């Protein structure tokens, strides 16, 4: 039988314990444990504190995993909004957009979302899984230990099932937790002859049962925007999904306002994007249980303003930060870089940044067993080669984790294997 592991000492152990789930956080609320350590057993943390005290307490009853100082340990990151299950590239779209082309002009030139749909439809389950694994490994190397992945580039019953099966296959090949989300309601497919409402009804009638039968996803997302689905079209679809026991998520207020109010009214787990949210919507999200997921990568990719993260936090919202990694608007896929640039633009504290990619991101995925380092939670953590945790955001993603641990197991080490 495997012994408990005592891991440390860490120059600073940043547990993020006892920080609020919503609203503003000041940096002095973060209490680093100096020369700290973790005791891990069966994938979970069973003790935490000063390393020397833990060593005296457990003696020879633990296996010692010695960490070379200087080192900082903090919870594994959670990327709660990605679209990395796709084939093809939209590099030409990016170049055309930067040169001043409109969305319609890009689409007429063979680009846009339908370029990705065509390439994704042409890929096999195995090919899509391999591409997804490749991208996920890049996130693991950044310290991501829980990863949400959406479908949405199939836009038909058969193709959406294929993508979700590819996500499941990729999960079997990865050492982290994958949370699949069904985004069949990304937009009405151009090859569907009926109305947008008819498409949503067909998805609900035909796809939802398959999601349950094959255990492909228990989360339903929809893009509410002028180029996708209206609030009036989205509401019955989301209501039906909720009635059937799915968690619901909304792509809301990216370019035009209104969908965040729908998300709150229906009790969505999260409202994601929010770049165009009004002051009224910010106040509403500040009082709601719905998580506000902000996606700075989309703003960087499109060259537009950031979501009002500061005002959301000051209003009392639970704000999570995710990459939105996708081939069209957010191709970077660098969580810490995006979060630190957002923090500089929106004046977020380091504590708010870290909360947004750990325990607040966990809430966006309805997960309560991770995001903080405390007794009973999963032993998911990152170790950085520095003596000051503030360096991580300060260096804007250029300082990488030396080690990434998932469920109490080392899954990545710089210079080693992922």
From TrEMBL:
It comes from the Bacteria. The keyword Metal-binding applies. One of its GO terms (molecular function) is imidazolonepropionase activity. Pathway: Amino-acid degradation. Keywords: Cytoplasm, Histidine metabolism, Hydrolase, Iron, Metal-binding, Zinc. GO terms for biological process: L-histidine catabolic process to glutamate and formamide. Residues 123-411 form the Amidohydrolase domain. Its EC number is 3.5.2.7. SUPFAM superfamilies: Composite domain of metallo-dependent hydrolases, Metallo-dependent hydrolases. It is an enzyme of class 3 (hydrolase). One of its GO terms (cellular component) is cytoplasm. It holds the Pfam family Amidohydro_3. This is Imidazolonepropionase. It comes from Sphingobacterium allocomposti. The lineage of its organism: Bacteria, Pseudomonadati, Bacteroidota, Sphingobacteriia, Sphingobacteriales.
């Amino acid at each position: 039988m495997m012994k408990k592991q005592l891991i440390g000492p860490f120059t600073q152990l940043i547990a993020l314990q006892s920080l609020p789930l919503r609203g503003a956080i000041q940096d002095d609320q973060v209490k680093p444990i100096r020369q700290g350590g973790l005791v891990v057993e069966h994938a979970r943390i069973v003790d935490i504190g000063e390393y020397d005290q833990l060593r005296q307490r457990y003696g020879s009853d633990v296996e010692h995993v010695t960490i070379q100082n200087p080192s900082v340990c903090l919870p594994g990151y959670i990327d709660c909004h990605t679209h990395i299950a796709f084939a093809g590239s939209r590099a030409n779209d990016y170049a055309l957009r930067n040169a001043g082309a409109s969305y319609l002009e890009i689409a007429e030139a063979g680009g846009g979302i339908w370029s990705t749909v065509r390439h994704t439809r042409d890929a096999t389950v195995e090919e899509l899984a391999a591409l997804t694994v490749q991208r996920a490994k890049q996130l693991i190397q950044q310290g991501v230990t829980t990863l949400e992945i959406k479908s949405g580039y199939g836009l038909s019953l058969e193709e959406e099932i294929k993508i979700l099966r590819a996500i499941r296959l990729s999960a079997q090949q990865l050492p982290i937790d994958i949370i699949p989300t069904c985004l069949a309601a990304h937009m009405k497919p151009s090859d569907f002859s009926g109305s947008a409402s008819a498409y949503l009804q067909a998805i609900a009638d035909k796809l939802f049962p398959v999601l349950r039968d094959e255990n492909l996803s228990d989360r339903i997302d929809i893009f509410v925007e002028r180029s996708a689905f209206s609030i009036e079209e989205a509401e019955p679809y989301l209501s039906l999904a909720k009635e059937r026991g799915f968690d619901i998520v909304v792509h809301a207020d990216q370019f035009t306002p209104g969908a965040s109010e729908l998300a709150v009214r229906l009790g969505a787990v999260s409202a994601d994007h929010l770049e165009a949210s009004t002051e009224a919507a910010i106040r509403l999200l500040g009082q709601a249980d719905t998580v506000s997921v902000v996606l700075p990568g989309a703003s960087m990719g499109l060259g537009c303003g950031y979501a009002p993260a500061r005002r959301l936090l000051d209003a009392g919202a639970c704000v999570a930060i995710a990459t939105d990694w996708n081939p069209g608007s957010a191709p970077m896929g660098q969580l810490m870089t995006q979060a630190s640039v957002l923090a500089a633009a929106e004046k977020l504290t380091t504590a708010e940044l870290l909360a947004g990619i750990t325990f607040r991101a966990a809430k966006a995925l309805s997960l309560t067993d991770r995001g903080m380092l405390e007794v009973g939670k999963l032993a998911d953590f990152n170790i950085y080669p520095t003596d000051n945790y503030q360096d991580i955001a300060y260096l804007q993603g250029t300082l990488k984790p030396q080690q990434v641990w998932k469920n109490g197991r080392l899954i990545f080490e710089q210079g080693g294997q992922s």
